[in-house]
Amino acid sequence: MNFLSRPWLICGLFGLLVLITRYPHAPGQLFTFDDVNLAYSVGHFDIRISQPQPPGYPLFVLEMRVLHWLGFRRVESILLALALAGSVAALGLLGYVGQRIFGGLCGFFAACLLVLHPVFWHSGITSALRTQLAVVSLLVAAACWRAWAGEEPWVLRSAIVLGLCAGVRPEIGVVLFPLWAVSALRAPVSWKRRAGALGAMAAAVLVWLLPAMFASGGPVTYIKACLGYVSDQASETSGLFGAESGKWQTTFWRLMVWTCCGLLAWTLPAVLAWKRKQGWRMDRNRLAFMALWLLPPFVFAIVIHIQDPGQALAMAPPIALFGGYLFNRALDNLEERVSRWQTLTLVLASLWVGWLIEFRDTPAVVAWLPLIALITGLLLKVDQVANAGYLPRPAAMAFLLVPVAIVNSDMFNFQGWYYKGSSTSGPPAAYQRVLSDLNSGLALTSLGHINSTLAVDDHAIRQTIRLAAERPGTTTVVWEHGPVAWRKVAYYVPRMPIVVLEHSMLRAGSQPVIAIWNGPVLNRRIEGAPPLTATLPRGGRIVWLLNSRTEFFTLVSRNFPLTAAGPAYFTDLPEEDGVRALGEYQLQW
Prior knowledge:
Layout: H1 7-22, H2 33-41, H3 58-69, H4 75-101, H5 106-115, H6 118-126, H7 128-148, H8 153-165, H9 171-175, H10 177-186, H11 191-214, H12 219-234, H13 245-260, H14 267-273, H15 284-303, H16 316-336, E1 337-339, H17 342-359, H18 362-379, E2 384-386, H19 393-413, H20 426-443, H21 447-470, E3 475-480, H22 486-492, E4 498-503, E5 512-518, E6 521-527, E7 532-535, E8 541-546, H23 551-559, E9 563-565, E10 568-572, E11 579-582, E12 585-588
Parallel strand pairs: 3-4, 3-8, 7-12
Antiparallel strand pairs: 1-2, 4-5, 5-6, 8-10, 9-10, 11-12
Helix pairs in contact: 1-4, 1-5, 3-4, 4-5, 4-6, 4-7, 4-16, 5-16, 6-19, 7-8, 7-10, 8-10, 8-11, 11-12, 13-20, 14-16, 14-18, 16-19, 17-18, 18-19
């Protein structure tokens, strides 16, 4: 099976699997607010107006522009192509890195673990940008390992790779700098060459940073925008930046789901890979490298910011690679010794799994299959004898990988991840809160999340277009925490004004703001002491995009007659002048 250690073959095998599992679910529209920002940046780059959002991702935008130059006219097609290509590239690189660091079939098994990992699967459909977190993480790690292993030229080369990869996802430069620094310190080179490599890294960063800065108003404006954006985003998820304790706890447990959910399928190989007195036998050198690759991104996520599953993909490759090592070691151990009770154990395990899948729901399968695999692994270590070909190598590989396919596929495809406890205080309430956060983390990485988001957004946009067509030239959209991101509505209905009622910052207590947009153009921004006033045309139509569970919706329903139109509402204004107060805002016509 040595042919499976060849990266080009892994790319071919997994490229087909990526196409089969991603393409049928590909959204026909821009999926997120950030996707719209990226779409606008193809024509004009400026982080001050979120084209794209800070810190800018200039080399990713360059990738988009290259595809546009090659003939991709729809941004939706550009992002889909980059998502599929990024997924395949990450799997191929993982195969290569696994073979370089651990040898054997570690890279192949690691790619098997990553390809159906719910977060990687979800991002491969919804976020080309975040998929490339895995790609650049692997590129940097591959280069740093060469320096770590003592190859002198790779101190300089890995520095340049890190500097350039930061232009795709700038946080990579921060979280993987410790890995490069330790790799450079281990390499047998002089301090002068290390300093030169650091200078080359700075030059590589300036290649993309200077154009991004000057396209966004200059260095001072760029840095100020980035710092303000990071601080504001972190205020939602980090206790250090002012997030409420409940929100930080939710962030923590979701992060545990997004980084560790794939480990559920490792119980069988983890048991089989273990040997008495040897353990898993990973040497300290490789373990230290893996730790430096994994821990800084993890600390960044906990301390600074993580809000979406795809932002955890910098951590997915080293975790998958460690899993690949366990699977490869388990396979080697199976080839050496097998249990006399192997046939009976496999038959009973298969019957148990079949019963579980047939008669239990998906959450039960996800929860109990790892336990069945654990028990099976323990039984297979009882009364072992030398293997005389009782379990052929391909069959052993399939035996190890089947739980991975079942558990990961069920986690991704299940559309009912939801839990809400009834307790309000004490340990039961805390336990139920954790269960709720774990379920919400799984929900955000599922196919159900993709389908529900597309269904709501598509319906809201179609209804908005229909309602505007009935009153051409006099329709205004008013958005306040609506079911669809206002940026998506502005993108798909560019000629209609959108009045966005928001606050200057995400953190509580910030000043109210009214922003009036036409497509990517900000016509007017009103801020100051409330109430802030937006003026609408007399006799015109308001299309409301609101969250019906908020206090603001209650205020609107008390002051305006609302007619439901799917997820949207509308109100036809009278011909006479009027004004209505809505908390911190007021509308007049």
